[in-house]
Amino acid sequence: MKGNILHYDIKESIGLISGEDGNRYKLDINEWFSKTTAPKAGNKIDFQIKDNKAIEIYSINSRYTNNGVINTKETSISSIISLFFGIIGLTLTWWLFAIPSIVAVISGHIAISEISKNRDNLIGIGLARAGLILGYIVIVIYFLCILFFTGLIYDLN
Fold first, then answer.
1. Average pLDDT, whole number, for the chain?
2. Count of domains in the chain?
3. What is the Cα–Cα distance from 1 to 38, expressed in whole angstroms?
4. Which pLDDT value is given to residue 152?
5. Which partner for 131 in 62, 108, 113, 137 could form a disulfide, CB atoms 3.0-4.6 Å apart?
6. What is the pLDDT of residues 109-134, one digit of tens each?
7. Residue finishing a domain among 14, 47, 64
8. Per the confidence metrics, is the pTM higher than 0.85?
9. What is the CATH number for 26?
10. Residue 137 backbone zone (phi > 0: left; psi -120 to 50: alpha; other: beta)
């Protein structure tokens, strides 16, 4: 059966589960089989029932990686935004006046800050760094071009 953890007390190692059938069941840590993630309120789970108690409890919030290890971390949205706008800035900067690159740099710094504060739950530092690098490269090139062309204009006068 599937359900959600309503409450889990770390000190007591017990909790309460709401099953999809509308009933509530006791959660005992000894029946928790997702060894790479701890139970917490809000987790979606799969479990069996025996004597009004949940047994063989598995978290279904987790995602499996290629090597079979469970990955419960989420990718930072800010890092995805940073990379996206870094690429857009690199390809369309001449029409958009480096605005996407500025967004890439700002969101990249936000992402790195979020990830460093929440290392247990967030990934994406590489995406954020790539977005930052692309953003800074385009901004520097854009302003060098502005300086070059304004210098040419003043030299013509």
1. 86
2. 2
3. 19
4. 72
5. 108
6. 999 999 999 887 889 999 999 999 99
7. 64
8. no
9. 2.40.50.140
10. alpha
